[in-house]
Write a structure and sequence with these properties.
Blueprint (H helix, E strand, L loop, with lengths): L4 H13 L4 E5 L20 H13 L3 E5 L41 H19 L6 E3 L12 H4 L3 H17 L4 E5 L31 E5 L9 H8 L3 E5 L4 H13 L8
Helix pairs in contact: 1-2
């Protein structure tokens, strides 16, 4: 909600001017969706308001990537914000999520069906009649993943892999490749010093479709460390190293991408 419509338009044009090939847009509850009213705040933008901004960006040569979190960040906010776009408006929808609202419940058919409708709606809107290349599913920081009775009765890695592969099957029908963050696929014991949160879920990588692009967010690498990028590449995935807001980190990850001949970097 802190980002104005004018700022969104300014950022899209800036990225296009800087020759970004793609721009991922994550609305955090600020785009009204037909899939469910509570997925957006009352003050959210309408598609009619956003469409001209998207059209300008596309006309300037940028490809747009829709993003909607499919695991952690189900609150449509950072954990420090203390707000939840759905549950703040309708607490009765709590069964869609794990106990704390932070993670989608992958054993609830209603949650899976809702996420499917959101994907379809966003692909149509972001494409504006043109093909969308990628859909960013998020899937990072899944602190409460697999906590309910139904989810906890299954192996966490198998549960995550099965869910993601089913989403990939759905996206493939539209000619769209899925992108996920890499933290849940990295074993913290094997990747000390890296952002790795896959203590329970890293086994998912064994049977995960290689259609997935892994955006490996590593915000604290400054001196050319590239073990996680090499790991994902050797496992057969396309990898986008993802730095944040420290120029040393950006420089290091861009150098790793060039050295390893990776397809790109996600800022």
């Amino acid at each position: 909600p802190e980002t104005t419509l004018a700022m969104l338009g300014k950022l899209l044009k800036l990225c296009a001017f800087l020759k970004y090939s793609h721009v991922t847009v994550e609305f955090w509850g600020m785009l009204r969706l037909d899939a469910m009213r509570e997925l957006s705040w009352p003050q959210a933008f309408t598609k009619e308001q956003v469409a001209p901004l998207f059209e300008t960006a596309r006309d300037m040569g940028v490809r747009l990537i829709p993003m909607f979190n499919h695991l952690g960040h189900a609150s449509a906010a950072r954990s420090i914000c203390g707000r939840h776009v759905v549950l703040n408006q309708n607490p009765g929808l709590a069964p869609l999520f794990e106990y704390d609202g932070w993670t989608w419940c992958l054993s609830n058919p209603a949650a899976l069906e809702l996420l499917g409708r959101v994907r379809s709606e966003l692909i149509d809107f972001f494409g504006g009649g043109r093909q969308v290349d990628y859909f960013f599913l998020g899937c990072d920081e899944a602190y409460s993943f697999g906590a309910c009775d139904a989810c906890s009765s299954r192996d966490p890695g198998e549960l995550l892999c099965s869910f993601l592969n089913s989403v990939n099957d759905d996206l493939k029908k539209r000619g769209v490749r899925p992108v996920i963050w890499g933290d849940q696929l990295l074993d913290p014991e094997a990747f000390k010093g890296y952002i790795a949160m896959g203590a329970k879920t890293s086994s998912a990588i064994k049977n995960l479709s290689r259609d997935f692009v892994i955006a490996d967010w590593q915000y604290y690498l400054f001196d050319g460390q590239d073990d996680s990028f090499r790991f994902f590449k050797e496992q057969g995935f396309d990898v986008w190293p993802a730095p944040w807001n420290d120029l040393r980190n950006v420089t290091s990850l861009c150098a790793s991408a060039r050295k390893l001949s990776l397809p790109g970097v996600m800022q």
